[in-house]
Amino acid sequence: MTKFTVNDRPVQYRMDPETPLLWALRDASNLTGAKYGCGTGDCGACTVDIDGQAVRSCQVSIRETEGRFVTTIEGLSPDRGHPLQQVFAADNVSQCGYCVPGMIMAAAVLLKRNNDPGDEEIDAAITNICRCGIYPRLRGAIRRAGRIMRGEEQVEAAPPPGVKPEDAARTVPALRRP
Ligand code: FES
Ligand code: FES
């Protein structure tokens, strides 16, 4: 039995302790925001926050996650209202969107540490790969989310997701708030 916390909820996985965290999140918890891209730690599509660090969840086992606090894109905000999520929607940053949960989680970790990062810091923190090439919009989106976090700017409310959090929690029990 492997125990840790996912999106503020205690979880216990009855799985092989060497199971990659990504598969436990996706297959056992139905948290499918983190994506499988390469499985080799290169693309970042599977990025989650573990104890305040951006971690590629395909590269860490549930045994190694024991006792730690994991946040996935589903847990970043209860209503998709995190400034990064708002900016990505308002500024049409995404293209196919496959890489975006990982991009946002890596960027959220960066902005938690420093909400006014320079280009070099952004480039160092966001090593995620995007096959659609959203890179030109990415720096701007991160900087704009930082300005929103600093109270210097507001974002037009992104279109409502059309799914109430309580409805999402009915479909995905792991989204229920404790
Ligand atoms: S799937 Fe984990 S880094 Fe690509
Ligand atoms: S938006 Fe398509 S892979 Fe990044």
TrEMBL record:
Gene3D superfamilies tied to this protein: 3.10.20.30, [2Fe-2S]-binding domain
Give the Pfam families listed for this entry. Answer: Fer2, Fer2_2
Q: Which InterPro entries match?
A: 2Fe-2S-bd, 2Fe-2S-bd_dom_sf, 2Fe-2S_ferredoxin-like_sf, 2Fe-2S_ferredoxin-type, 2Fe2S_fd_BS, Beta-grasp_dom_sf, Diverse_Oxidoreductases
| SUPFAM superfamilies (alphabetical) | 2Fe-2S ferredoxin-like, CO dehydrogenase ISP C-domain like
Q: Where is the 2Fe-2S ferredoxin-type domain?
A: 1-76
What PROSITE patterns is this protein classified in? 2FE2S_FER_1, 2FE2S_FER_2
UniProt entry tagged with the keyword DNA repair: no
Region (Disordered) residue ranges read 153-178
Question: Can you name one GO molecular function term for this protein?
Answer: metal ion binding
User: Keywords on this record?
Assistant: 2Fe-2S, Iron, Iron-sulfur, Metal-binding, Oxidoreductase
Q: Which PANTHER family match?
A: BLR6218 PROTEIN, OXIDOREDUCTASE WITH IRON-SULFUR SUBUNIT
Q: What is this protein called?
A: Isoquinoline 1-oxidoreductase
